């Protein structure tokens, strides 16, 4: 299967005619090719976007909203096809793609299709001076959206939907590791009547295609989700050009469990927050801290439940854990298991590659739990981004708070307790952009989403995203 770029409403080959192999993680085989796009392809995408901008930015809110909602409906109507594609490209269980990834991509378009009709700007009356200020929120122009491989269509559309809803035109690049659903999205946009050039999708490597988007002098804003090192590099390139930047980067999130929690709910949710999507979600609670009074019980119950999880082919309906996204990523995650052993971590379960019958070359790994000797060891400090969690006991609130905050990241945190005062104290002090109490990954799309410290800058979600993709202009009138 050959994927093409989607530029000015047409599917076209890269100008250089260079291609990259696309792998199926469930069997390790190449099943298609994607464009290795160059600067010239990005330039073509930019020219199309620029030409579409005057008309799209003047299109009524009602019409923009109608098209976004139509895209959402078409995604829902094509749920099976998109879920199959996402699962094949990424290795995630098809059941997950069907219930989470694709429905959420559809929700992103519906949500921002509605949100744009409710978005408003401010006015300030300067009392006693006979003046009034009103603030326009104008679209920026051509913006760049760059997304990762873990939640391919989900995160791609989380950027594109608010960008086009607010009147911008987009040059977008999905991860080269998972390009398929982004490619299919082009067809849907056409069918929904999105005018040519409003959304342009360019495929290729980060260091060439992605870099060309970030470096482009007239792409005025970059919304990026991916690794922290890449985020730092992008900031370095974009800052001297004074581009608007939204960076959603890595995490090493604490999952803090107090003895007074609802135990069964906590246990079941902790399995999900540890291993959903093979642990490849920036929000996963990869560091589990447990009240020492229930530590031994939790450890036994958790490990027993994890041993029951089925690692298998993504299309099997009873598979809990599919394949990791790529061979290099599997190797990286396995290296961390060796690091844990060298650091005197105890592997309580998992740790090995899994051979799935008939798919012997797939990238499967057992869900792994490491009892960590210290919160400062590498497996407790560095983002592993796979089906690997650490567990450690704690004796009191101050101790766990200190350990929770002693990492360079600050994306999310989960807290399990029924003590209201403790909830308030801890939530105030946890260094994170998102704190979940007695739940995990419960998302209301109106809320601000993003991290602090090395987890990024800026917030996505709701009106925050619409503010990011618009430029405020204040007009002061004296009367
Ligand atoms: O991310 P990259 P990768 C973390 C996770 C993972 C690591 C690397 O720890 O192991 O990042 O994953 C594009 N200019 N997360 O390699 O490289 C790239 O092509 C412009 C956390 O996938 O950051 C892709 O489209 N673009 C995370 C996107 O950036 C560039 C989710 C992300 O790639 C570029 C995924 C450049 N110079 C990984 N270099 C999360 N927080 O959700 C790369 N890209």
From TrEMBL:
GO terms for molecular function: oxidoreductase activity, acting on the aldehyde or oxo group of donors, NAD or NADP as acceptor. Pfam families: Aldedh (PF00171). Signal peptide: none annotated. Keywords: NAD, Oxidoreductase. SUPFAM superfamilies: ALDH-like. InterPro entries: Ald_DH/histidinol_DH, Ald_DH_C, Ald_DH_CS_CYS, Ald_DH_CS_GLU, Ald_DH_N, Aldehyde_DH_dom. The active site is at residue 248. Residues 12-475 form the Aldehyde dehydrogenase domain. Belongs to the aldehyde dehydrogenase family. This is Aminomuconate-semialdehyde/2-hydroxymuconate-6-semialdehyde dehydrogenase. It comes from Winogradskyella jejuensis.
């Amino acid at each position: 299967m050959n994927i093409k770029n989607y530029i000015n409403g047409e599917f076209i080959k890269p100008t250089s005619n260079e291609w990259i192999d696309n792998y199926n993680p469930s069997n390790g085989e190449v099943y298609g090719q994607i464009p290795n796009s160059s600067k010239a392809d990005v330039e073509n995408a930019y020219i199309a976007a620029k030409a579409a901008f005057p008309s799209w930015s003047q299109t009524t809110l009602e019409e923009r909203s109608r098209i976004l909602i139509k895209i959402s409906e078409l995604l829902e109507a094509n749920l099976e096809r998109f879920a199959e594609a996402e699962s094949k490209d990424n290795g995630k269980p098809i059941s997950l793609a069907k219930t989470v990834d694709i429905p959420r991509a559809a929700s992103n378009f519906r949500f921002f299709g509605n949100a744009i009709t409710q978005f408003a700007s401010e006015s300030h009356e300067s009392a006693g001076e006979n003046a009034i200020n009103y603030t326009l929120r104008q679209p920026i122009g051509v913006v760049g959206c760059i997304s990762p491989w873990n939640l391919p269509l989900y995160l791609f559309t989380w950027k594109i939907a608010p960008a086009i809803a607010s009147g911008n035109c987009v040059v977008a690049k999905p991860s080269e590791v998972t390009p398929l659903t982004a490619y299919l999205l082009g067809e849907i946009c056409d069918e929904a009547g999105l005018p040519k050039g409003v959304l342009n999708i360019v495929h290729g490597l980060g260091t060439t295609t992605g870099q060309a988007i970030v470096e482009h002098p007239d792409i005025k804003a970059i919304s990026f989700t991916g690794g922290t090192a890449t985020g730092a590099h992008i900031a370095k390139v974009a800052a001297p050009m004074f581009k608007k930047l939204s960076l959603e980067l890595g995490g090493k999130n604490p999952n803090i469990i107090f003895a007074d929690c609802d135990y069964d709910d906590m246990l079941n949710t902790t399995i999900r927050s540890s291993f959903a999507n093979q642990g490849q979600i920036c929000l996963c609670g990869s560091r589990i801290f447990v009240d020492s009074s229930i530590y031994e019980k939790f450890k036994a119950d958790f490990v027993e439940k994890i041993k029951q999880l089925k690692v298998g082919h993504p299309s099997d309906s009873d598979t809990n854990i599919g394949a990791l996204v790529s061979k290099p990523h599997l190797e990286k995650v396995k290296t961390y298991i060796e690091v844990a052993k060298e650091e005197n971590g105890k592997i309580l379960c998992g740790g090995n590659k899994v051979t799935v019958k008939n798919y012997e070359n797939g990238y499967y790994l057992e869900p792994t739990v490491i009892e960590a000797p210290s919160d400062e060891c590498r497996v407790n400090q560095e983002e592993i981004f796979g089906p690997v969690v650490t567990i450690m006991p704690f004796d009191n609130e101050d101790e766990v708070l200190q350990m929770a905050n002693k990492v360079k990241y600050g994306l999310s945190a989960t807290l399990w307790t029924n003590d209201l005062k403790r909830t308030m104290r801890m939530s105030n002090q946890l260094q994170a952009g998102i704190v979940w109490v007695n739940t995990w990954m419960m998302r209301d799309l109106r809320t601000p989403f993003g991290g602090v410290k090395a987890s990024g800058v800026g917030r996505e979600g709701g009106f925050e995203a619409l503010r990011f993709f618009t430029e405020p202009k204040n007009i002061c009138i004296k009367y």
